[in-house]
Amino acid sequence: MMDAATIDQIRLNFNPQTIAALNFVIGLMMLGVSLDLRVADFKRIFISPKAPAIGLGSQFILLPAFTFLLTMIIRPSPSMAMGMILISACPGGNLSNIMTYLARGNTAVSISMTAVSTAAAIFMTPLNLSIWGSLNPHTAPILRAVSLNPADIFKTIFIILVIPMAMGMTLAHFFPKPAGKIQKPFRIFSFVVFIAVVALALKANWQIFLQVIGMVIFVVFLHNILAFSLGYCAGRLAGLPPRDVRAVSIEVGTQNAALGLVLILNFFAGLGGMAIIAAWWGIWHIIFGLCVSTWWSLKQPINTVDVSGE
Q1: In sequence order, what are the residues at sequence separation of 6 or more whose Cβ sits closer than 8 angstroms to the Cβ of residue 43?
Q2: How far apart, in whole angstroms, are the C-alpha atoms of residue 55 and residue 232?
Q3: Residues of the chain below pLDDT 70
Q4: Nearest alpha carbon to residue 258 among 190, 181, 188, 308
């Protein structure tokens, strides 16, 4: 079994060209996802704000805070703890809308949360990373060592998430028919590319991953359960309809691990413990999310009315 100090010394070796290619690929994935987004998805937040607000609060406030507490309780290696904090600071993943649909959840709420959380990530991701990473005495030295500048993270997220999202929405608005034709292929492409990005990260440290797989599986399992549970409990406590609760739970439980990997490569020199956590999260949240969606698909929500009006 590899000790914590050794894990923290691991680095993924990617050259600048490969990192630039990964940034481009994540941008393409976001472009594909945004073909489903409309201005109305943002307006829905103001028309029927309760469910999206509860979900976004759970995603950007509760999850980072409770992740911090989890790292203090289970005490993984500093680099793994930093990876958990980074994942919790990322916006929702691009498969959450499909999972919500399969789970008979409120897809309109899910899409609205995806749209707004992606835009909000340019502020909230660097903010949460800086706050909670600094408060943990084991991860604070990592932030100091890399001299993390939140403005640089803001710029990167803006380029690889917000700009492609704006391009995709513009394409869908002015050219709806071509956008509709490429929508499904782009979704498949996005999924394949996402798995490829995760596989690339794992391959670079495969032997090391095998040595720490027990700890990684345990940590990510607890973390992902926490994420899904926070969304579910917040929705129930707020009195949301069952379909909205499902949407919020899935949205909070499926973080954008691909974005996390890109940030790790760009700002943390491919720190191995962080990368392994992000890579395994990328695989596990799909497995667990599909299991939850399948379970819910077998259970008809009591309230089948879409409170968003759609």
Answers
A1: none
A2: 9
A3: 1-19, 147-148, 190, 194, 197-198, 200-202, 204-205, 208-209, 302-310
A4: 190
- In degrees and rounded to multiples of 5, residue 88 shows phi and psi of -65, -20
For 227-285, what is each residue's pLDDT tens digit? 999 999 999 999 999 999 999 999 999 988 888 888 888 888 777 788 888 888 988 98
pLDDT value at residue 304: 45
**What are the phi and psi torsion angles at 255 (to 5°)?**
-80, 155
Beta carbons of 96 and 56 less than 8 angstroms apart: no
Residue with tokens 């999206």: 52
Cβ distance 232 to 309 under 8 Å? Answer: no
| Torsion angles phi and psi, residue 92, rounded to 5 | -65, 155
User: What are the respective helix, strand and coil percentages of the chain, to the nearest 5?
Assistant: 80, 0, 20
Count other C-beta atoms under 10 Å from residue 97's C-beta. 25
Tokens at 227, concatenated: 């994420």
Q: How far apart are the first and last CA of the chain?
A: 53
CA 69 to the chain's CA centroid: 19
Residue whose C-alpha is closest to residue 216's, from 230, 228, 226, 202 = 202
